[in-house]
Design a protein that fits this description.
The protein is mostly helical. 80% of the residues lie in helices and 0% in strands. The chain has a single domain, classed as MFS general substrate transporter like domains (Growth Hormone, Chain: A, Up-down Bundle), CATH 1.20.1250.20. The N terminus is likely disordered.
Amino acid sequence: MKLNLSAITGNLKLKEYFSFGLLSINGYMLMVNTYLMIFYTDVVGLDPAAIATLFLVTRVADGLNDPIMGYVVDHLPRTKLGRFRGYLLIGTAICTLNYFLLWFGPAWASTGKLAIAYASYILFGITYDMMQIPNASLLPSITADQKDRAMLSTFKGSVALINSLIYGMIPPMIIQMMGDAKLSAYYIIIFGAMTLAMICTTTGVLGIRERVEPVDDEKYKFREIFSILTQRPVFFTTLLMMMFATSASAASASSMYFFTYMLDGRFDVISISSIFSTISVVPTVLLAGWLVQKFGKKRLMLALLVVYALGFAIRLINVTSIPLFYASVLINGFPLGIFNVVSPTIQADNIDYVEYKLNRRAEAGISSLDSFVIKSSHGIGGAIGGYVLSSTGYVANQPQTDLAKFGIVFNTIWMPIITYIIGLFVFGFGYNLNSKKVAEVNETLLQRREAKNSDS
């Protein structure tokens, strides 16, 4: 029996590209990274050091469970919607319910606010896995064709820009408009985010189809998780993403403090900067596929780390200069566009590489590392940000000392510069997949599928 290549490698309809893109419309983690710390300190009234410990303990501990959750998702029974789409719908609904508790449980409680924050934050980590891991597993299961994957990632990256624009512009505008009614502002923002996530996820799931099946139907054993996750390209990709996301989390967690106390509440700068970011990101998202073919994914990733570090470094000329801040946003938009498109395709290559080496298909297992990185980096980055603020003397809703202002600057500028430079060397020396090797892996897997199909 001859293998139908079109079922695996192409002819995707435009509807499917747009539907896949809609799966990036989700502001849950963006809101948590950017606003939860200042919400807990300035609205709920919790101590920044206590929140730092909360982030560190719960996120890192929960992140270690992500490969186990990935194993569970890989071994769940197939639904009518495929291996991942049905569980993405269920996971999003459950996560949305807990997301409400994460924000307003501590705010409504008269006592035990920190305990409620711990409980809801731990639950958020678990329920976020139920949503994020199936989502991240979809790309390699939709198609095995490199061009189709690049196009799907381009659409998802393009829609991610809209997602960033929404959560970069609207929340600060609402917060500024509501003035002292901070809790009411967050009601509007969080309920809006929950509604938008459910609508876009449902629409996206119903518009795509899973095509790629494992060469070997036998599921990998639990004891094989370690060997899968420590394959060289998987390990060093995860390490780079961890550094990248940790610096971003530290900067995001302190960004609202920067605009509140360094720029005297100029939240309009956040909204305007989102426009600048979109202007610079769009060209690179559209050109990312061509850039990958010309320079390769690895060299492109190394180049973007250099540009990111330089983009933050120019702000050190005058940390309170708004024009320099806008210039930094413009510069950093170029590598961000590349990163949004290239990083999912690198992870898809890693999934194929593991199947090539170990004859085991582990989309959810490897994709669980994305969730691990997101949560652990938020825990580490948020903890660093909180401890720095606490150690430099931050006091909520008061004018800050010069030392406290330095802590805010360290979190928002110096942390990204340092981690991007370290990441440059880690990924440069550690990642070992080039274009030639990826083509070899794809060809080998295609031959194995043909052989399996012929035997059946």
